[in-house]
Amino acid sequence: LLWFHRTTFLGLLLWLLLRLFLRLFLRLLGLLLRLFLWLFLRLFLRLFLGLFLRFLRLFLWLFLRLFLWVFWFLGIFANRLFSSHFLGLLIEFLFWIFFNFLIQFLLLNLLWFLFLSFFPNGFFTTHFLGCFNGHLLWLLLNFFLTLSL
Fold this sequence. Notes:
By secondary structure, this protein is mainly alpha-helical.
């Protein structure tokens, strides 16, 4: 075909038509691929993010309702039990640190664990350990800030 298109006008015309159809086919294929990816990602993200946000909203609603009521009652009970406002607040702050530990350390690291379990093992372990150390430092910072209050 290369020899044919160089030697005759009809071959040159066929070669140009072949290139034109190849470009149009590749452009159409690219458009179809983009459309498929856009539709797939849109549906997938809508489904995944919808379920994830619904779960997160339910979890936070239950968790905050339960634990804030428990903290409030424990604060009142500790005030009556020790008849000291300082001890009641200290116990309430300790439970608040525990609550921060549950939210920041367990929940976030479990989410990282779920998301990063799809990645290769080396990246997963280093990133998980980085999150682990970062959340431990954040807990220590919260602890000292709470004590300074």
